[in-house]
Amino acid sequence: MEQEQGWDPEVSTFLIRIINAIAITLFWMLTASTIGLYAGLAVPGAFPIWATILYYLLLVLSFAALVRYLRNTWKKHHK
Q1: Secondary structure, 3-state, 30-71
Q2: Considering the entire predicted model, what is its pTM?
């Protein structure tokens, strides 16, 4: 009896989805914290209050977009 070489294609696509989800989330986290901390927008008082509010508003909106993207990605392949 001959043994198969490599992984099952379903397992391979599942692991690729996991790695992509982790990579996209880490990219979002690093980008958001870099912009916030390096530019000083995350620290109240460093900029006018409207700039800080705008930063946090965009942070929440981008997080909602990230969650929506990840949910759609996982839902599309889960059917």
Answers
A1: HHHHHHHHHCCCCCCCCCCHHHHHHHHHHHHHHHHHHHHHHH
A2: 0.79
